[in-house]
Amino acid sequence: MSEKKFDTLNDVSDVVISTRIRFARNLREYPFPCRLSDEKKRKVAAVVKSAVLDGHSAISSRFEYIQMSELTQEEAVSLVERHLVSPEFISDRQGRGLLLLDDESVSIMINEEDHIRIQVISAGMNLDGTYDLADKIDTLLDEQLQFAFNDKLGYLTQCPTNIGTGMRASLMLHLPALKESGAMGKISSSLSKLGLVIRGMYGEGTEPKGAIYQLSNQVTLGISEQEAINNLRDIANQLITQERAARETLSKNITVQDRIYRSYGILQYSKLLSNDECMQLLSNVRFGVEAGFFQGISFDRINRLFIEAQPATLMKNIGKKLTPQERDRIRAELVRSTLMQPQVPSSHRLEE
Question: What is the pTM of this model?
Answer without folding.
Answer: 0.90
